[in-house]
Write a structure and sequence with these properties.
Number of helices: 2
Strand content: over 45%
Shape: elongated
Order of helices and strands: EEEHHEEEEEEEEEEEEEEEEEE
Largest sheet: 12 strands, antiparallel, barrel
Distance between the termini: 97 Å
Radius of gyration: 26 Å
Structural class: mainly beta
Number of strands: 21
C-alpha cells in the first residue's frame, strides 16, 4: 500500500434525494458525515399547481350556453319549446402560479407554470318550460366528460384528468331582459406523475362544484343586437390527501374557492337567407372577469422511518386572477327544421392565465 495525501474534497458530493430532502456526503475534520437539507422549492411548486390548474381548465372548458342562439327564431311570449343539444369544446390553457412556500426556516417565493390541453363533451335536454308573471322559463339537465393533460414546465411531470360531470341549467326572459345560469358537479380522477416526489401515475381523486348566473339586457339598434351583461361565477375544488415519496410524505390540499364577477357586452347581427330558410347570426362578446375572492393552499409533511414528522411546508398561492375574454363566432338557425348551431372561438388573457378554445354545438327544438 502506497501512502500519500488525499484531498478530502474529492470524496464530497451528492448521495441522491428522497422527495424534497437532498443528502450530501461531507468531510468534517477527521470524520465523514451525511448532511440532509430540505428544499421545498424542488418539487413543491409542482404540488401547489394542481388545484389552480384544475380551476383554470374547468373555467375554459365549460362555456355557458347563450340563449340568443339556442332559442327559437322570433319566439312569441309564452311559446314553449323543448330541445336536445350537444356541444364540444377543445383548447389549451396556461397558468402562471405565484405565492409563497412557508417552512420553519422562513418564507420562499413560489413560481411555477403549467400548460394544459383539454376537450369537453357535453349534452343536455330541456325538461320544463313555463310562463309566470310575464317571465318565460326553461329548465334543463346536462352532463358530459372533460379530459385534459397538464404539464408542469418547471419541475416536470404533470397529470391526466378524467372528469365526468352532471348539472342543470335555466333561462328566464321577460321582454329585453334575460337571466341564464347553470350549476355543475364534477368528479375528478387524476393520474399524477412527479419525478421529484417519485410519483408515476398516482391516482388522486376529488370533486368540484360550479354555479354561475348572468343577467343581460338585449337592446336593438338598426338591426344589431347589443346586450350589456353582468355575471358571477363560483367554483370550489376539493382533492383527496395522498402519499408521496415511497409513502413517506403526506400531501394535503385545502379547498380551492374562487368567486369571479364579470361585466361585458355582446354584439350580434342577423341575416335571413330565404332560399335556405336559414338565419345567420355573427356575434362578438367582450368581457372583463374580476376575481372577487379566492383561497388556495397546500401542505406537505415528510415523516422519518419511525413515523414522526421530520420536515414540511405549507403553501399559499394565487388562483386564476383577473382576465379579459373575447368570444367571436357565428350561429345559425334552420327555420324549417327547428335546428340551431354555432361555432365560436374564445380567448382569455390575464396576469395569471391565458387560454384559447374552439367550441361548437347543435340543438334540435321540438
Amino acid at each position: 500500500m502506497t501512502g500519500g495525501a488525499v484531498d478530502p474534497g474529492a470524496f464530497t458530493g451528492s448521495l441522491g434525494s428522497s422527495g424534497l430532502v437532498d443528502y450530501t456526503f461531507l468531510n468534517s475534520g477527521d470524520d465523514w458525515v451525511v448532511r440532509s437539507s430540505f428544499d421545498p422549492l424542488k418539487a413543491g411548486s409542482a404540488l401547489t399547481t394542481l388545484t389552480t390548474s384544475l380551476a383554470a381548465i374547468t373555467l375554459a372548458a365549460h362555456q355557458p350556453q347563450p340563449t340568443f342562439y339556442t332559442g327559437p327564431f322570433q319566439p312569441h311570449p309564452g311559446q314553449q319549446d323543448y330541445g336536445l343539444w350537444g356541444r364540444i369544446n377543445a383548447g389549451y390553457t396556461d397558468v402562471d402560479h405565484g405565492g409563497s412556500i412557508n417552512t420553519c426556516a422562513g418564507k420562499n417565493r413560489l413560481m411555477a407554470k403549467t400548460e394544459s390541453d383539454f376537450t369537453t363533451f357535453i349534452g343536455g335536454m330541456d325538461l320544463i318550460g313555463s310562463q309566470v308573471d310575464g317571465w318565460d322559463y326553461i329548465l334543463g339537465v346536462m352532463g358530459g366528460l372533460l379530459r385534459a393533460d397538464t404539464y408542469n414546465m418547471g419541475a416536470g411531470g404533470g397529470y391526466h384528468l378524467e372528469a365526468p360531470f352532471v348539472g342543470g341549467y335555466f333561462t328566464a326572459s321577460n321582454g329585453a331582459w334575460t337571466i341564464e345560469g347553470n350549476g355543475r358537479y364534477d368528479w375528478y380522477d387524476l393520474d399524477l406523475s412527479n419525478p421529484g416526489l417519485q410519483l408515476t401515475n398516482r391516482d388522486v381523486d376529488g370533486n368540484g362544484v360550479n354555479a354561475n348566473v348572468k343577467v343581460a339586457y338585449n337592446g336593438e339598434f338598426n338591426g344589431i343586437m347589443v346586450s350589456p351583461n353582468i355575471g358571477v361565477n363560483y367554483t370550489r375544488i376539493s382533492l383527496d390527501d395522498f402519499w408521496a415519496n415511497n409513502n413517506t410524505a403526506k400531501v394535503s390540499y385545502g379547498d380551492l374557492e374562487s368567486l369571479i364577477g364579470s361585466i361585458g357586452i355582446k354584439i350580434a347581427g342577423e341575416a335571413y337567407i330565404p332560399d335556405q330558410a336559414l338565419v345567420v347570426k355573427p356575434f362578438l362578446e367582450l368581457a372583463y372577469m374580476a376575481e372577487l375572492d379566492s383561497s388556495a393552499d397546500t401542505s406537505y409533511m415528510q415523516f422519518d422511518r419511525f413515523g414522526n414528522p421530520a420536515a414540511g411546508f405549507t403553501a399559499n398561492y394565487n388562483t386564476v386572477g383577473d382576465f379579459f375574454k373575447v368570444s367571436t363566432g357565428i350561429a345559425g338557425v334552420k327555420v324549417d327544421e327547428n335546428v340551431t348551431g354555432y361555432v365560436a372561438v374564445d380567448y382569455s388573457t390575464g396576469d395569471n392565465v391565458e387560454s384559447l378554445a374552439v367550441n361548437g354545438g347543435l340543438r334540435k327544438v321540438f
